[in-house]
Design goal:
The complex is a heterodimer. Chain A is an alpha+beta fold. Helices cover 53% and strands 15% of the residues of chain A. In chain A, the strands form three sheets. A five-stranded antiparallel sheet of chain A has the order 2-1-5-4-3. A five-stranded mixed sheet of chain A has the order 7-9-10-12-11. Chain A has a two-stranded antiparallel sheet with strand order 6-8. In chain A, helix 3 runs antiparallel to helix 5 and helix 5 runs antiparallel to helix 6. Chain B is of the alpha/beta class. Chain B has helices at 13-25, 36-46, 62-70, 86-94, 107-125, 158-169, 177-184, 193-207, and strands at 5-9, 29-33, 50-54, 77-82, 99-103, 132-135, 138-141, 146-149, 152-154, 174-176, 217-220, 224-227. In chain B, the strands form three sheets. Chain B has a five-stranded parallel sheet, sandwiched between helices. Chain B has a four-stranded antiparallel sheet with strand order 6-7-8-9, with no helix packed on it. In chain B, strands 10-12-11 form a three-stranded antiparallel sheet. Classes of the chains: A alpha+beta, B alpha/beta.
Chain lengths: 451, 230
């Protein structure tokens, strides 16, 4: 506007008297020329300024786009990852790449008061730096390098703020002290920090959900155990109480034979209670991890013999065919526990088959493991249930006796020995339970022969 | 011969009641103690023929009672212990106990242990050790080194024979693996528990009708062996 205002006084003095001089050389024309030049210069300067700005904006946009892409890449990777350590490793790697900095993550300690450096960080904090990080955690505001709070620090610290509250502190130690000076950089960095915070919170929530799930599962098991155990404890107790009170109250009114029968049922039921308690104890030991194997080299025949004699009364009128090859090697086992496996398998065979049906025990060796088979000629397992029978509290359909723990315990013991156990229905009827015992470890010194 | 004297050291009143009924019914004179401390005093003052002790006592470890009693007397000590506590049983036997019964136990089982214990003290006092051991079909003539099953003579190797006679010496009583190894192979072989197991398998194949269901050479899982005596 100002320039235009000056134009009028310059052009107005042009008079018709100066017609002889070519218009080109006239003073007023020269001024006009200068004016044009100035205009062009201004236009040029403005244009180049604008171009530079556009270039800068394009560059900034490109950087933003790169970072957005990087942010997207990080978010996507975080979203597909489980576990706090893995999440943090991803976040540290991405932020470090994008901002050319070393990164640490500080997480609240178990008490919630202290901050602990996550082990995957890229630099370590001295007590001053840790102080800055703590301040950030407590005040939920950035501090340290490039900020107005404690700018003397070596690194910049940002709070990791999630919807439910602070989850930690992110520390950024740039290679160039001024790399993070622009507000745009800081803003971008905060976006990355927010994504990281969200991921950490998600991991915490997943942990909590899992713990809750475990609690529910434990509770369910406990209830199932309680109902199963209380039933199995009460049934024999009812028999014992009934028999004892009958004898107490009827006195001499019951005959000797009835008396004898009542007394025998008291003893049988007490035996049953004892077996149940034994299984419960073994189960507890297996589950608490307190089970310690005391492995020694045993002839399997002896362990089978011990199991058979423990079941003596129940097996009294059963045919048991035992086939143990005389050249079967010694097996490295805890004899008390493997005996328990055999007792449980035999006990099952006794429970689920008629007393006239024979039981077969077979041992074979492959050189790497010994396989033991306990087979009966009973009804077999329902189709498809061959694996389910090893679940805790599983009971056969035909007989509700027992707590459904025997096979689960057997599986625990066999697995602890490095072997495995399975069941298969036999084509000729009945079911076979098989388990392997690996012949691992240094075989014992050979036994000196004597003549 | 006067009635044998038994001292019972047990804190559980119901078990004491059951023991009293069983033992007095069989003609034993019974003295009871409910704590380890009282038990040691009872053993000292009653001069019992057999001591029965529960390992879980309120005032002191049953093992400690056994060790104290062993300082002055060789009286047979029978331990009451639960199944699943094989290590405790071995420790008790090492500490000087003679035998054990696993809870829950029947009266017959306990009475058999007491009879065996009394027989061994009687055998030790009369040097006229019986030269022939008999149980079921098995007959071991220690004088003529002859082993018979029914009317068939069985040939044993020297170690098998030594193993068998060691068990005969302790007939009816539990013998730990360590004890067997020491007595048969000597004190330098006590780490080789599988020696005993392998030779026991040989013996069973020669003496038992069904080696996998032994009648005479019984296994006490996790502890050792017992030769049936009745």
């Amino acid at each position: 506007m100002k320039k235009k205002a000056r134009l009028i006084p310059v052009t107005q003095p042009v008079k018709p008297t100066s017609q002889k001089v070519p218009a080109f050389f006239r003073k007023s024309d020269w001024l006009s020329c200068l004016f044009t030049f100035v205009v062009m210069l201004v236009v040029g300067l403005v244009t180049s300024g604008l171009a530079a700005r556009i270039r800068m904006q394009a560059e900034a946009a490109r950087q933003r786009e790169q970072r957005t892409a990087a942010l997207y890449a990080m978010s996507r990777e975080l979203a597909s990852t489980r576990g706090l350590d893995e999440l943090l490793a991803i976040a540290v790697r991405h932020i470090s790449d994008v901002f050319r900095s070393q990164i640490v993550v500080l997480l609240p300690g178990t008490g919630g008061e202290t901050l602990v450096s996550w082990s995957g960080g890229q630099f370590t904090l001295d007590s001053n730096e840790l102080g800055v990080a703590k301040w950030v955690h407590e005040h939920h505001q950035p501090a340290g390098l490039g900020t107005s709070t404690l700018p003397g620090a070596a690194a910049l610290y940002l709070p990791l703020q999630a919807p439910r509250g602070p989850v930690g502190v992110l520390g950024i130690h740039p290679a160039d002290r001024h790399a993070l000076d622009s507000p745009d950089q800081l803003h971008q960095l905060e976006t990355f920090a927010n994504q990281t915070a969200l991921a950490i919170e998600r991991a915490h929530l997943a942990d909590e959900a899992q713990q809750a799930q475990v609690r529910i599962e434990t509770e369910r098991l406990r209830n199932s155990l309680l109902s199963s155990v209380s039933h199995d404890l009460r049934t024999p107790l009812a028999t014992i109480t009934g028999a004892a009170t009958t004898m107490l109250e009827s006195g001499t009114k019951i005959d000797a034979q009835t008396r004898q029968e009542l007394l025998e049922s008291v003893r049988e039921e007490a035996d049953r209670l004892n077996r149940l308690v034994q299984n419960l104890l073994e189960m507890t030991r297996l589950e608490s991890g307190a089970l310690q194997l005391r492995k020694e080299w045993h002839p399997l025949e002896e362990v089978i013999g011990a199991a058979l004699s423990r079941l003596g009364k129940q097996l009294a009128d059963r045919r048991v065919d035992t086939h143990v090859p005389s050249d079967l090697p010694l097996v490295p086992i805890d004899d008390v526990l493997v005996e328990q496996v055999l007792v449980n398998l035999l006990d099952n065979a006794i429970k689920y088959t008629p007393s006239s049906s024979p039981i077969r025990i077979l041992a074979t060796s492959t050189g790497e493991a010994v396989t033991v088979e306990v087979a009966d000629h009973g009804p077999g397992l329902p189709r498809g249930e061959e694996d389910r029978v090893f679940e805790k509290f599983y009971r056969g359909p035909s007989n509700g006796r027992g707590a459904g723990l025997g096979l689960a315990i057997s599986q625990g013991i066999v697995n602890a020995h490095g072997g495995h156990i399975w069941a298969q229905n036999l084509p000729e009827g009945g079911v076979a339970f098989l388990f392997t015992l690996p012949l691992a470890g240094k075989p014992p010194a050979s036994v000196p022969a004597d003549a | 011969m006067p009635d044998p004297v038994v001292v019972v050291i047990e804190d559980e009143p119901q078990i004491r009641k059951f023991l009293r009924a069983t033992l007095e019914g069989q003609g034993y004179r019974l003295f009871e103690a409910t704590t380890g401390g009282d038990g040691v005093v009872e053993v000292g003052s009653r001069q019992p023929d057999v001591v029965i002790i529960d390992l879980g006592l309120p005032d002191m470890d049953g093992l400690e009672v056994i060790r104290r009693v062993r300082e002055w007397t060789a009286v047979p000590v029978i331990v009451l212990s639960a199944r699943g506590q094989e290590r405790d049983k071995v420790t008790a036997l090492d500490a000087g106990a003679d035998d054990y019964v696993s809870k829950p136990f029947g009266a017959g089982e306990l009475l058999a242990r007491i009879r065996v214990a009394l027989r061994h003290t009687a055998g030790a006092s009369h040097e006229t050790d019986e030269a022939v051991f008999k149980v079921g079909e098995l007959r071991v003539d220690l004088l003529h080194r002859q082993v018979m099953v029914g009317d068939k003579e069985i040939h044993l190797t020297p170690i098998e024979y030594k193993l068998l006679t060691t068990l005969v010496r302790h007939a009816g009583k539990v013998v730990t693996h360590q004890q067997l190894l020491r007595e048969v192979w000597g004190p330098s072989h006590t780490e080789q528990a599988h020696y005993a197991r392998v030779y026991m398998a040989h013996l069973r194949h020669k003496l038992e009708a069904e080696p996998a269901r032994p009648r005479y050479l019984l296994t006490e899982s996790g502890v050792g062996y017992r030769l049936a005596a009745e």
